[in-house]
Amino acid sequence: MNASNLIENMLGGKTVELKPLGEVTVYEQPTKYLVKSNAYDDKNPIPVLTAGKTFILGYTNEREGVYMASTSPVIIFDDFTSANKWVDFDFKVKSSAMKMIASSNNNNVILKYIYYWLNTLPMELTENDHKRQWISNYAKKLIPIPPLEIQAEIVRILDTFTELTAELTAELTARKKQFTYYRDKLLTFEEDEVDWKTFGEIGEFTRGKRFVKADMKYEGFPCIHYGEMYTYYKTWATQTKSFVDENLATKLRVANPNDVIFVAAGETIEDIGMGTAWLGTSAVVFHDACFSFRSGLNPKYVAYYSRTKFFHDQLRKYISSGKISSINSRGLSKVVIPIPSANHQARIVAILDKFDTLTTSLTEGLPREIELRKKQYEYYRDLLLTFPKDEAQP
After folding, report:
1. Among 226, 218, 212, 232, which Cα is nearest to 255's?
2. 358 neighbors 174 (Cβ within 8 angstroms)
3. CA 227, CA 229: separation in Å to the nearest integer?
4. Exposed (0-12), middle (13-18) or buried (19+): which is 177, by Cβ within 10 Å?
């Protein structure tokens, strides 16, 4: 028997009552739980939360005004964006634009059931919508309230899916740490073990030319925008996400196959200098906040090296900080790189490629498995939380 049939059998053909969400929940403002200092440290015991994607902003040592969710789990709800999270550990909050949502009566409505149902709702916000969402919008929404035993069974089934995804995500995090360790280990050499040269001694940097997002299309001449370097591209690529008009491409600069494209500007300095080896079959145009690098080294070797701690520790000395941090070709050219033999470079790349596939590939490895599990969870969540309605009900 599948999950949907199980719920239908438990209902016995009965319809499910709908109630306003505000009627089956209570909320609390975050005023007394606000953190006073943002001097966060991972060694501190109390997490500081946001309902958004970041979730844990940091850890504080402030002991007063802690929400005790370890004894009474809660939904945290961002009142502007409607983002929400399930929390079952003690915490403080950063923003006053948040509500802590609880069930008004756990003997009638299970809070975890409310949380799962809440996440079946589509996002309804417009770009400039700054009204408080809970009272003006969400509290009025009608939530189906099946019998308590059915709520419990739905929660049990969906918990199973989320726990599996959490286990896979934890494994992926561990694998990424392992990858980082072995990458830095494989790319660390003794001073007399290999030749050491600056990037400027072994190759040439070329700065791209400016184009804007409005120029980017779904077909045409392949292009790489610097913003995509942070969100889309990884160690190497054979195809681009975006394209520009063929006529515009003639006015821009191109990187050729086996060049490495370095991102050279951003809001933070941590990701500046990340390199992506371009392994496509044709040239690609690239943004003026990037540099292409051409050398006789294995391009993947260079790209992997650009993501090591040793590389970035050197790079920081040459970054200009401000609202937008950046580095120029002179700074990039001064960074030192170890140069083992071509065969040694190829061996290192082969090892790291295996880790890379395991930790980043959406067609193989853990990311693909996690994505499949998330889709499976969303399918069953929506299936389990859709009930037959009485025609008299809205």
Report:
1. 226
2. no
3. 5
4. exposed
CA distance linking residue 255 with residue 237, whole number of Å = 12
Query: Considering the entire predicted model, what is its pTM?
Result: 0.62
CA–CA separation, 85 vs 52, rounded Å?
Answer: 8
Per-residue pLDDT of the chain (394 residues; tens, 9 = 90+): 455 566 666 666 667 889 999 999 999 999 999 999 988 998 999 999 988 778 899 999 999 999 999 999 999 999 888 889 999 999 999 988 899 999 999 999 999 999 999 999 876 554 445 578 899 899 999 999 999 999 999 999 999 888 888 888 788 788 888 888 889 999 999 988 999 999 999 999 999 999 998 999 999 999 999 989 988 898 999 999 999 999 999 999 999 999 999 999 987 777 789 999 999 999 999 999 999 999 999 999 999 999 999 999 999 999 987 778 899 999 999 999 999 999 999 999 999 998 888 777 655 666 777 788 888 888 888 888 887 655 334 4
- Residue where the block lists tokens 């997490």: 47
CA Rg value for the chain: 26
Q: Which long-range contacts (CB under 8 A, 24 or more apart) does 124-132 make?
A: 124/82, 125/81, 125/82, 129/80, 130/80, 132/79, 132/80, 132/97
> Euclidean distance between the first and final Cα of the chain, in Å?
30
Element (H, E) at 92: strand 92-93
